[in-house]
Amino acid sequence: MSEPKTMTKSELIARLAERNTRLAARDADEAVKTILDAMSAALAAGNRIEIRGFGSFALNYRPPRIGRNPKSGERVHVPAKFVPHFKAGKELRERVDGMDNAAAAESGKLEPAG
């Protein structure tokens, strides 16, 4: 399997503008920025975001702990924090799994069922 490609925000904006010809590139840029800002604000406020068929974003709590500085070995206090967490929805998981199986079947690594 080849190295996975990363889609950047600018590539997402370009693809949105390509697929919607009546949408100017700057309008696509504004739409993407508005969506990402709204999602960031919701998570910062402690809210959960659910996009049906795609997935959900939530916050996971990480309690305080004692860590070690890898260079000196000294003990350091790591404070408690909330970290964003994404969980893929059923449709996205099935679509990605189908993609993986199709690529593996083409390369001969997966035997077709049957």
Task: Write up this protein.
By secondary structure, the protein is α+β, with helices and mostly antiparallel strands. 43% of the residues lie in helices and 24% in strands. The protein is built from three helices and five strands, in the order H-H-E-E-E-E-E-H. The protein has helices at residues 9-19, 25-44, 90-107; strands at 49-51, 55-62, 65-68, 75-78, 81-88. A three-stranded antiparallel beta sheet has the order 1-2-5. A two-stranded antiparallel ribbon has the order 3-4. Helix 1 crosses helix 2 (25-44). The longest helix has 20 residues, at 25-44. The chain is extended. The two termini are 24 Å apart.
Summarize the structure.
The protein has helices spanning 9-19, 25-44, 90-107; strands spanning 49-51, 55-62, 65-68, 75-78, 81-88.
Which structural category do the helix and sheet elements fall into? alpha+beta
Give the SSE string: HHEEEEEH
Question: What's the tally of helices?
Answer: 3
Largest sheet, spatial ordering of strands: 1-2-5
Biggest sheet record: 3 strands, antiparallel
Number of strands: 5
Strand content: 15-25%
In terms of per-residue confidence, which ranges show pLDDT below 50 for 5 or more consecutive residues? none
Q: What is the mean predicted local confidence, pLDDT?
A: 89
Helicity, as a percent range: 40-55%
Radius of gyration: 20 Å
Task: Measure the end-to-end span.
Answer: 24 Å
C-alpha geometry: extended
